[in-house]
Design goal:
Largest sheet: none
Helix content: over 70%
Distance between the termini: 52 Å
Structural class: mainly alpha
Number of strands: 0
Number of helices: 7
Number of domains: 2
Length: 148
């Protein structure tokens, strides 16, 4: 398969994954950045042994990188590490969006894409126990917010 065929085969999975992690406004930019970066390397997409897992890991890494950069910018602007937003009613989607990127990725892959923790671990480039830990932490956060 050449680069364009590989991209067509994984494009919608990458977009769905990125959208779950960062929302539809930024998802296309995330996927474009990842694919462009891989295409500039020797061999491009065709040079990857397993393109889909590699690109899925790259998407979550790009999200994490942007999240860190944004957190640093907010800390500089506000002069602190935390920023409290306006008080509003609890929405599960809002709580999920506030989860750290790796917890959000694990929740998306296991609960929405119906991967097993072992399969999600391959896509996230970590151990199954780590995915189960991310899921535990995500459920705990949801439980904490919904109980309030």
């Amino acid at each position: 398969m050449d680069d364009s065929e590989i991209y067509e085969a994984v494009r919608w999975d990458l977009m769905r994954y990125a959208t779950a992690l960062v929302g539809s406004e930024v998802a296309e930019d995330i996927v474009s950045s990842v694919v462009t970066r891989v295409l500039t390397r020797p061999g491009g997409l065709a040079g990857l042994r397993e393109p889909k897992p590699y690109l899925m890991r790259s998407v979550v890494n790009e999200v994490r990188s942007r999240h860190r950069a944004h957190t640093r910018q907010v800390a500089v602007v506000t002069g602190s590490d935390t920023v409290s937003g306006p008080d509003r009613s609890v929405d599960v989607v809002d709580v999920i969006e506030q989860l750290p990127p790796r917890q959000r990725a694990a929740a998306f892959l296991v609960f929405y894409e119906e991967y097993t923790p072992t399969e999600a671990a391959v896509l996230m480039d970590c151990r199954p126990a780590t995915v189960r830990r991310y899921l535990h932490l995500a459920r705990g956060k949801l439980r904490e917010v919904l109980d309030e």
